[in-house]
């Protein structure tokens, strides 16, 4: 059965295992090659799941797996919101 | 890590990995790449992915045109879809840009590039959502475009490794050992590699690398910010840019709009944080050009470092005073787009002793004389 881990970008657990097998063992690297965490959920759904997979496969605890860089804004906001403001 | 190598490349971005690939293709596989983070995590992984040939100096135009020829075959060569799209670059001309832009097009045409000056109405045919009220025209070159830098860099790296190159990620260079102007070894936090040849492809950190052997590069780092929106249906073919406002944006194959805007008040620094000032300037300028984009949500913003030289052209080739120390840096915001040709030339210099295109105008020693620079820097 296919286990979906990143719903924004359609990434499965199998995709994650393949990336780890290719030597991408940090969350930032996996994000770069698979795009997971780059969708509208901004990683809230997928990153905890992927962290667990990476931890298990690399023999680390979840706390030892490096977090991907958090990028602003904290939630998606429209361009017109920023365009309307005076400096 | 290997104890010795015929060449060591410092930097795992598009220049470092591209050089590793080009060297291996020429038969030199006894090569070690050293990267302090993951691959493609410096400027290569932070850039807008644009591939432009519309420049204002002969050197930059030639490097970019040759690179486009190589980009056109790169997906096939690397066995990976680099998401290359030749939707063109539309360079917005405001009233006081027009005379200069016409001159630029003449120079580009004389070198064989099919760029042209177009009217606002023609620009709107290419970008139907464009608000042409504030613009006086544009220049357009259909064979310009964009690609996915991650795909390119990881593609180069994988092919280089398959041919025998060793790539060491998360390995920080701490020193270069040289005796009487001859390199002996490169020291890292994971061990030492003996070599007599080093390629300095460390982007905005190239100055620190050069200083390890007493070479003073004139490069300065500048933060450039960028954002990405949620994906939407395909509405934008070309990269749209303006030198007056410093804005650039394009739609990726994936559907999102990626773009940035230069800030004339940005000081030289290694700052990589995102600012609200950027979001406001970017949103205002982009929404003026394409009002419909006001509805789009911004998903993320980040920043990367331009490695800027006094004439906004790269520094390539051997270094006076240190034998077999090759510079491949100082791209001033244009590293990704010229990487295919630049890395081929660097490999030719190292293996054959002579590149197939003259790079004398781009060596470090040019800064001893008078400087004529690239006027077309954006973002």
Q: Please, could you describe this protein's structure?
A:
The complex is a heterodimer of chains A (87) and B (379). With 87 residues, chain A is mostly helical. Helices cover 41% and strands 8% of the residues of chain A. In chain A, strands 1-2 form a two-stranded antiparallel sheet. The N and C termini of chain A lie far apart (52 Å). Chain B is of the alpha/beta class and 379 residues long. Chain B has 2 domains: 7-47 and 150-218 and 311-368, 3-Layer(bba) Sandwich (FAD/NAD(P)-binding domain), CATH 3.50.50; 86-143 and 220-308, D-Amino Acid Oxidase, Chain A, domain 2 (2-Layer Sandwich). In chain B, the strands form 4 sheets. An 8-stranded mixed sheet of chain B has the order 5-6-4-14-15-16-13-17. In chain B, strands 8-2-1-12-19-18 form a 6-stranded mixed sheet. In chain B, helix 1 runs parallel beside helix 6, helix 1 (14-25) runs parallel beside helix 9 and helix 3 crosses helix 9 (335-352). Chain B is globular, with a radius of gyration of 20 Å. The two termini of chain B are 38 Å apart. The model of chain B has no long low-confidence stretch (mean pLDDT 96). Chain A binds chain B through residues 24, 26, 28-29, 32-33, 35, 38-40, 42, 69, 71-73, 76-83, 85, 87, and chain B through 38-41, 45, 150, 154, 228-230, 254, 274, 277, 279-284, 286-288, 293-302.
Q: State the CATH topology of the largest domain in chain B.
A: FAD/NAD(P)-binding domain
Provide the CATH architecture of chain A.
Answer: Orthogonal Bundle
Largest sheet of chain B: 8 strands, mixed
Q: What is the H/E order of chain B?
A: EHEHEHEHEHEEHEEEEEHEEEEHEEEH
- The unreliable regions of chain B are none
Tell me the major beta sheet of chain A: 2 strands, antiparallel
Poorly predicted tracts of residues of chain A: none
Total E-strand runs of chain A:
3
CATH fold field value of chain A: Arc Repressor Mutant, subunit A
The strand count of chain B comes to 19
Question: At CATH's second level, what is the architecture of the largest domain in chain B?
Answer: 3-Layer(bba) Sandwich
């Amino acid at each position: 059965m296919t286990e979906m881990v990143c719903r924004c970008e359609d990434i499965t657990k199998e995709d994650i295992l393949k990336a780890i097998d290719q030597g991408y063992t940090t969350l930032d690297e996996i994000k770069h090659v698979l795009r997971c965490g780059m969708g509208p959920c901004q990683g809230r759904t997928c990153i905890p799941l992927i962290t667990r997979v990476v931890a298990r496969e690399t023999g680390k605890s979840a706390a030892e797996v490096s977090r991907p860089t958090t990028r602003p804004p904290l939630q998606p906001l429209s361009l017109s919101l920023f365009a309307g403001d005076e400096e | 890590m290997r104890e010795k190598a015929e060449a060591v490349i410092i930097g795992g971005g598009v220049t470092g990995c591209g050089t590793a690939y080009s060297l291996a293709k020429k038969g030199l596989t006894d090569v070690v790449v050293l990267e302090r983070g993951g691959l493609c995590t410096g400027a290569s992984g932070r850039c807008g992915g644009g591939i432009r040939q519309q420049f204002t100096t002969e050197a930059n135009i030639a490097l970019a045109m040759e690179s486009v020829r190589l980009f056109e075959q790169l997906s096939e060569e690397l066995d990976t879809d680099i998401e290359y799209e030749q939707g063109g670059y539309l360079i917005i001309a405001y009233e006081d840009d027009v005379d200069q832009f016409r001159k630029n097009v003449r120079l580009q045409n004389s070198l064989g590039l099919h760029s042209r000056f177009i009217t606002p109405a023609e620009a709107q045919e290419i970008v139907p959502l464009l608000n042409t009220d504030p613009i006086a025209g544009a220049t357009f070159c259909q064979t310009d475009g964009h690609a996915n830098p991650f795909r390119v860099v990881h593609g180069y790296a994988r092919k280089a490794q398959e041919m025998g190159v060793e790539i060491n990620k998360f390995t920080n260079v701490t020193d270069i050992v040289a005796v009487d102007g001859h390199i002996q070894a490169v020291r890292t936090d994971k061990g030492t590699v003996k070599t007599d040849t080093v390629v300095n492809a460390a982007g905005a950190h190239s100055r620190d690398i050069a200083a390890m052997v007493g070479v003073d590069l004139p490069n300065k780092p500048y933060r450039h910010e960028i954002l990405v929106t949620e994906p939407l249906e395909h509405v934008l073919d070309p990269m749209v840019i303006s030198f007056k406002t410093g804005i650039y944006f394009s739609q990726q194959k994936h559907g999102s709009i990626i773009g940035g805007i230069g800030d004339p008040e940005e000081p030289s620094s290694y700052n990589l944080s995102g600012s609200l000032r950027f979001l406001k300037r970017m949103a205002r300028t982009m929404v003026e050009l394409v009002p419909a984009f006001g509805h789009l949500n911004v998903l993320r913003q980040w920043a990367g470092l331009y490695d800027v030289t006094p004439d906004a052209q790269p520094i390539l080739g051997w270094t006076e005073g240190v034998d077999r120390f090759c510079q491949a840096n100082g791209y001033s915001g244009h590293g990704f787009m010229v990487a295919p040709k630049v890395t081929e030339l660097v490999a030719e210099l190292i293996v054959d002793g002579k590149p197939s295109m003259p790079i004398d105008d781009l060596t470090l020693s040019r800064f001893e004389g008078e400087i004529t620079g690239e006027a077309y820097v954006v973002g």
